[in-house]
Amino acid sequence: MSEALLVVAHGSHLNPRSSTPAQDHADAIRASGAFDEVREAYWKEEPSFRNALRTVAADEVYVVPLFVSEGYFTEEVIPRELRLDFDVTDWESDGTSADSVTLRPADVDKTVHYCGPVGTHDAMTDVIVRRAETVTGDPDVGDGVGLAVVGHGTKRNENSAKAIEYHAGRIRDGGRFAEVRALFMDEEPEVDDVTDHFESEDIVVVPLFIADGYHTQEDIPEDMGIADDGGYPVPARLDGHDVWYAGAIGTEPLMADVVLERAADAGADVDVDVRITPPTTAVADGD
């Protein structure tokens, strides 16, 4: 039986870069031959969620949401638009532990394995660390370095903060970095005061956002005080610290492997030991 992967993402009518991560990761997986078929669908762009399953030829479809946290989109919008009779209690999740559930769509004759979002998968912890390596150009970064994992934060969805705190805690427990903090745009502790939360001279700031847009390219740099002529230097000197700002984690190539792991956990016949993306050491620049 053939298997298909459907990567679903938010997309945007205003930000042309919003769909880039989904396209790039789908292209990488497609080129690897891991699935017979790989497609993308979006909430705010075409192809849309509503018609996505009708474009898939395979009988078995693994749906992986390219979202950071569990909540409104993963629990309501996506299942509704894909016409899945989904009940959030099927996941039995505490806000970061959604796995997968197997369902039959109401309008097409297919078996759908609906997965939790990539942002809460344990492999995302590795992507955050990789992002720190990428932005600093140091594959061994960590000793004497502080790491800030940044999320949006919102009182409307408590799971938004849970995902950030979950990965920050896992990295902290690993002991690689001198300090690890979870910071937020709209909750305390805030990223505005990033240097107040660290003693380390070098601070790597990794925002847990899927795509680069206003939040990651304008709001967060301005909030931290590193914005400069429409961009930001990497590193930026701020209050006696060197701040290495990484930009949206969703653009990190290793994300493609997290998508694969989500599908594999749901039963897809893929070999997750074969990594799609090799280590990278290119230094990011916000200008």
From TrEMBL:
GO molecular function (one): metal ion binding
Keywords of this entry: Cobalamin biosynthesis, Cobalt, Lyase, Metal-binding
InterPro entries: CbiX-like (IPR002762), Sirohydro_Cobaltochel/CbiX (IPR050963)
Database matches in SUPFAM superfamilies: Chelatase (SSF53800)
Alphabetized Gene3D superfamilies for the sequence: 3.40.50.1400
One Pfam family in the UniProt entry: CbiX
Protein name: Sirohydrochlorin cobaltochelatase
Domain of life of the source: Archaea
GO aspect biological process, one term: cobalamin biosynthetic process
